[in-house]
Amino acid sequence: MNHKEALVKTSDKEEVQVSTSKPQSAFPFAKENYIFMIAGIVAILLGMLIISLDDTTHGAGFLGLTLGPIVLFLGFMFEIFAILYKKK
Predict the structure, then answer these.
(1) 16: helix, coil or strand?
(2) Which DSSP letter does residue 65 get?
(3) Is pLDDT larger for residue 2 or for residue 40?
(4) Which H helix or E strand runs over 41?
(5) What share of the chain is helix, strand, coil (3-state, %, to 5)?
(6) Which end of the chain has fewer beta carbons closer than 10 Å to its terminal beta carbon, N or C?
(7) Structure pTM?
(8) What is the pLDDT of residue 24?
């Protein structure tokens, strides 16, 4: 008996093999997950770029202390979403 099949009893003397799961993919995630992950990586890189564009001393301006970290945080949250997302 294959791990994807189960025996189903139809009567006292007859058993039928029935498939219980769909075939497994070689990749751990679906295509949508990888697209979301790439979008999250782009957001993270964009946040780092925004932080580095701040011209004030030690990055203490609006870009370095507010906008960049918000974009960076959203990128990491998008990565978590991409990992946990499961198509229904």
Answers:
(1) strand
(2) I
(3) 40
(4) helix 31-52
(5) 55, 10, 35
(6) C
(7) 0.71
(8) 75
Q: How many whole angstroms separate alpha carbon 52 and alpha carbon 69?
A: 11
3-state secondary structure of 5: strand
CA distance 53 to 13: 76
Q: Is 84 a residue whose pLDDT tops 70?
A: yes
- Write down the number of H helices and E strands in the chain: 3, 2
d(CA 62, CA 34): 32
Residue 21 clears pLDDT 70, i.e. is over it: no
Q: How far is it, in rounded angstroms, from Cα 46 to Cα 68?
A: 8
Inter-CA distances, 80 with 2, 26, 29, 46, Å: 34, 21, 13, 17
Question: Where are the chain's structural domains?
Answer: 26-84
Q: What is the band of 14 on the pLDDT scale with cuts at 50, 70, 90?
A: low
